[in-house]
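Appendix B. One record, verbatim.
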Amino acid sequence: EIVVPGGGRLPHAAVTHVGVLATKARTGIARALMTRQLRQARDSGDVLATLRATEASIYGNFGYAVASVSADYEIDRRRAVLRKELRGLRPVRYAAVENSWDLQARIYSSQPDPRPGSISRSDRWWNGPEGRLGSEGRMHYLVTCGAEGNETGYVRYRPLSDQAWVESTNRTVLVNDLVAHTDADYAALVEHLLSIDIVHRILMPVRPMDDPLPWMIADCRSARITGTLDETWLRLVDTETALSRRAYQGAGEVVVDIRDDLLPDNTVRLRISSLGVCRTDERPQVVTDVSCVSAVYLGGASWWQLAASGRLHDAPREPTNTLDSLFSVSRQPFAGTMF
């Protein structure tokens, strides 16, 4: 399931490991494969599909679009100091990683207000990191926050390299996973990371684009973004249901004609307002395709960006501004889960 604006959860297809043998490339196999998979997803009740793209030039051809972007942070631990009003908000303690997968799964699944774009993690997903830790043979650490038996956050991390750790002048810790139910939980986990005196550098890859981390540290330059990456590629396979199940903000209404050449029965004309979504035969104010609507669905992209890039067929400014108001979200979408 995937969380959509307003907090609803929709069934979705998590698409992974799609490929064509090099000897069979450029023969239409990928298009046939992707089209059949999307149709089967629609027929089985999935409302949308997401994937993580190895190449960015492929999946737009099948109606996918970048719906969330993540940021990689690097913290200079020697300079970074948590703001004093954020210190000591929650107790933290170590837990044995090898015996904690059920605990991590419980904390993750019980998040009270997950961001749009968050997806559920199945038992199969949890078996993945557990198996990798066993095969890597590296030292991993897990720290939880909150009262024992009622934990509300965790961070899992490891030394980036086990070699020459004692002599190194650039000891680095890599954060593999971080889940926090509240801002106070997040502050407690960051405070723990900053308290590891022997560490010089902390890497926190795959964080939300609007992560409050720099604002939490007295010297904001000691926590810097070292890169960004397209995270969730999203594709609506049942556009009417998907748009009906998310929440809208602001006032006004817009009639949008949404075309889907790959799945023609997914083409639809809808009136969208803060009251909801309904089919209509009225003249459309905005004409676009399913890829564009997939980009803005979680709130990660804006309608004005699509208009400026020429992807809305010369849509007038007023309905575009109304759509941006309707689709606005308070927090940027973020999944934080690879599959």
